[in-house]
Amino acid sequence: MLAGLSPDYYSRLEQGRQANISTEVLDALARALRLDEVERAHLRDLAAPTTRHRAAVSHALQRPDPGLLRLLHTLDHVPVLLLGHRGEVLARNALLTEVLGRPLEPGSSFVRFMFQDPVARERILNWADFASATVATMRREIARRPYDNRLTALVDELRTSDPDVARWWDDHAVRDYASVTKRIQHPAAGPMSFNIEIVCAPHEPDQRLVVYTTEPDSPTARVLPLLASWNAAPVIRPDTRAGG
To answer: Is the pLDDT of residue 53 over 90?
Structure first.
């Protein structure tokens, strides 16, 4: 009634028996269900013709966007991570590996790290917040790419092996990448706090630069140079002694 639809038409929508749903109907449903912007986009993706989805799927290996890669190298004073659309690591800097305690080599899965590596649960103090948001983001991604078999297989594997993933998936929450706070317990540096900011290139929407920012002169900002020095290559100085 709120959306101005007949019960029969709405039933066909729910049961997936109504093809070619108009934008006006989707907007009316979004208003009636009080969806936010991410949920509205998710609804539109679910209702989109399957031919569009199939044509949009690419199985090519993602390569880091050159501009985002340059930005990553410029921001060497804070932890930075470049992710592809399946949560695959495309690039990261040395501080990121020091803060999270794992190498996270390019080609590895940050999603697998979150759920299958015990270090993630140990170091990320608000792990449940990040992990549940990761599941909601994966639901958003799989609606964008329903024919991405690798993404579907990853979701199925995690739902089967991890009860937390299964529970959060059944909540049907959707989320886009957003700025949040991550609290880290580093074994040597102690507690650290980062604001996570997401940077996207207009021409490369499937890649996201994840930047761990800090408040100026905060305890975390003061300890980061020390962590960076642990990863720095040793400086070889010339021997100035006589005969050296």
So the answer is: no
- pTM for the complete prediction? 0.79
Sheet holding 180-186, edge to edge: 89-92, 80-83, 204-213, 190-201, 180-186
- For residue 207, give every residue at least 6 positions away whose Cβ sits within 8 Å of its Cβ, in sequence order, or none: 62, 64, 65, 68, 82, 83, 84, 85, 90, 200, 201
176 CB-side CA count, 13 A = 16
Answer whether residue 177 shows pLDDT above 60: yes
Could you tell me if 120 and 100 are in contact, meaning their C-beta atoms sit under 8 angstroms apart? yes
